User: What shape does this take?
Amino acid sequence: MVTPVPKSRILIVDDEKNIVSSLTGILADEGYEVAKTGDGIEALEIIQNDPPDLVLLDIWLPGMDGIEVLKTVKTYHPEIEVLIMSGHGTIDTAVKATKLGAQDFIEKPFSLDRITQSIAEVLNNRRSSNNEDKRAPSSKELPLCFESMVEVRKAVNDFSLNMKPVLVHGESGTGKEFIAQAIHRQSSKSDRPFVKINCSFRQARSIHSQLFKRSQKGLKSTKASTQSGEEKVIYLSNIDSLSKGLQEKLAEALNKDSSSSDDSRLELIPIRLFASSTKDLTALSAKGQFHPALLDAFKNTTLFIPPLRDYAVNIPAMAKDYLAEASKTQNAPIPEIGEDALAALCRYS
Assistant: This one.
């Protein structure tokens, strides 16, 4: 039997409660983290806010049918694996789903062994592909939209030289996650997995299990004792939504004195932590809504990403640069943007 990838996250999208209940139980027993919904539109909202590793998707759904959900997922999140389930499938439907990017088409009623084996194979193949995919470095460290932001470029370079925790804040859509990944890619641990956790949507217990382990009395944890394959970097988006209890524990772990003799203390699992927020954490801390010690842990490694409207004069060059890059990857002529369209882009805020 194929060994499942531990802690992979699966979203079940099916409105048949009995099937969802059975799948949830067996997949949880196999070591997966499972979320579920019976509505196609709600599934897209979940995927947008907290993308899973794999989606088990039924064809017939309220809100939006499975084929449309599949098409949308593969358009905006091509890295997510999708397995289609259907009790009324046809050859044409199966062919269409496969062409749209589904990894498997499973007819109902199905055996649980069949579906767990398919899931394990797809996720293991995904992990192998990720390990083998060593993309050539880009000719630019950052896209043009960030190249004009001197402070951002400097911070990316500086923060990549160490493994300290980093806080990135700014408005929604300013590229906070991209900047965190850019720092990670330039660091000495760039080959370690970059695990994304949305604190607004992930359950506190799940976040806790990803962040902490309890040190064992009498055993001193060292970097040498950790297998590189087990090391990971974690990115906590919307850290302001972290529960007060987790904020306190995280603050203690990040600020702890390594000479502490408390053998029962919690230790951080990730070798590096990135966090982001759209909120003013200093103001929230002053109101008692964000732990001051956690904010203090990022005091020298906080980066603000300004909105693009502050650099509107650079938008025409950015648009042309983007289209030039797209034409290379798609082997197509460079499309033109009219002056009116460029002016509208510059005015938008």
The CA atoms of residues 44 and 69 lie 7 Å apart. The two ends are 54 Å apart (CA to CA). The chain has 14 helices and twelve strands.
